[in-house]
Amino acid sequence: MVLDKPAGLPVHGGPAGDDNLESHLGLLRFGYKETPALAHRLDRDTAGCLILGRNHRALRKLGRLFEQRKIRKTYWAVVTGAPTPPEGIIDRPIKKLSTKGSGWRMVTAADGQRAVSAYQTLGRSDDGLAWLELNPRTGRTHQIRVHCAAVGCPIMGDEQYGTPGPTLHLLARAIEIPLFEDRPPIRVSAPAPPHMQDALKACGWKS
To answer: For residue range 79-114, what is the model confidence (pLDDT) as tens digits?
Structure first.
């Protein structure tokens, strides 16, 4: 199953007991015994395509596909500034940096794990924004957010890595799952969420 996760909803419960996606998954049994479970995760403020496995067997298969990097993910981001060149590869290792009293964040560092993201610029606005399509080729925590900030183009609304704002302008736009060897890949796309539409239109997106 693929859900269109709204921005602002965490996938896991936190210590404060806030509302979260996992607490609602029992509603998606549709008569089956097992409750669907997350095959991967999205950040709280990232909207878009999120894959669930309907049972343990499906989760194992999806896990193997993720490990083999056969599942293709496409993201849309609205960033401040524009990358140079307008399309290319960001190949910068990432590691987790913990700071006493202020939690943790991901940073680019030579001794981090390899992280690779392909990107292309789909449009630009008159006031310094750019609409990017990104394909992560590795699956590091906060990879897209860190890579955009590292090349001088932080994502709109990303308070942790760049530009403060009401909501992160990052969408898990599409997912491609080669679930069966003898059939075409399953392709699912998510619509642009309301909070991103004005910025996307300014960059040339047509709804």
So the answer is: 999 999 999 999 999 999 988 777 899 999 999 999
- As a whole number of Å, the CA-based R_g of the chain is 17
Give the pair of three-digit tokens for residue 185: 């890949």
pLDDT for residue 167: 93
Which portions of the chain are predicted below pLDDT 70? Answer: 15-17
Single-letter amino acid code for the residue at 171: L
Tell me, what's the pLDDT at 18? 82
DSSP state of 183: S
CA distance 138 to 123: 25
CA-closest candidate to residue 53, choices 45, 65, 44: 65
Nearest to 106 by CA among 87, 120, 93: 93
Amino acid at residue number 72: R
Q: Which residue has the tokens 């950040």?
A: 43
> What is the predicted pLDDT for the residue at 16?
67
Cβ neighbourhood burial of 141 (10 Å; 0-12, 13-18, 19+): middle
Q: How many CB atoms lie within 10 A of CB 7?
A: 22
pLDDT of residue 103: 84
Q: Which of 143, 173, 139, 147 is nearest to 65 (CA)?
A: 139
Query: Which residue numbers are catalytic?
Result: 43
